[in-house]
Amino acid sequence: MTDQPRRRLVLASQSPARLGLLRQAGLDPEVIVSGVDEDAVTAPTPAELALALAEAKASVVAAKPEVKGALVIGCDSVLDLDGEALGKPADAEEATARWKSMRGRSGTLQTGHCVWDTASGRYTSGTASTVVHFGEPTDEEIAAYVASGEPLYVAGAFTLDGRSAPFIDGIDGDHGNVIGISLPLVRRLLAQLNVGITELWTPREK
Questions:
Q1: Residue 194 in 3-state DSSP?
Q2: 198: buried, middle or exposed (CB in 10 Å: 19+, 13-18, 0-12)?
Q3: For the purposes of burial, counting CB atoms within 10 Å of the CB of 98, is it exposed (0-12), middle (13-18) or buried (19 or more)?
Q4: Domain that holds residue 91
Q5: What is the pLDDT of residues 125-165, one digit of tens each?
Q6: Quick one: which of 21, 58, 111, 177 is 20 to 30 A from 52 by CA?
Q7: pLDDT tens readout for residues 3-13
Q8: Which residues are known catalytic residues?
Q9: Reported pTM
Q10: What is the CATH number of the domain that holds 103?
Q11: At CA 35, angle to CA 102 and CA 72, rounded to 5?
């Protein structure tokens, strides 16, 4: 740690899960939503799509005059199931069909990350991948889960830290990446911009 003032950190995402993970890791980002039209962004593969969306969100927020000098983190997640990129379901009917197609199978949660240093004008990006093994919830359990509303707000129509947790048999890789942000990848990206993640920690309360 140094005596230099902490760099301002901005999260270009409205995801409360991403914000929560960053706060648990000792960071205290501000939230500025990019407003990027996600449907207008395309890419050949789910991993490339997640990265393109993360880069688009971070670049839009980094260009705002009010964030000059800050570090901006942009993220976006999609589920790769048989090569198809699945984001948030459009409605309850789609969420139900999605879960019926996923149960008993495995998919890869791809989360693109982009970190912009608005002080230097440099940015770096990368994608983290985690394999998710879905359980076999009954039709009744799927109906109850969809009725809760939760799957309509999360990529892939599931999350590890919510009501769908009992329906996930296990994962291979970083659990935080599935929730929304890979902290190890964020650390590596910051290091590429010559920023140590410990320099961004908030002081512990005494």
A1: coil
A2: exposed
A3: buried
A4: 9-200
A5: 999 999 999 999 999 999 999 999 999 999 999 999 999 99
A6: 21
A7: 568 899 999 99
A8: 76
A9: 0.93
A10: 3.90.950.10
A11: 95
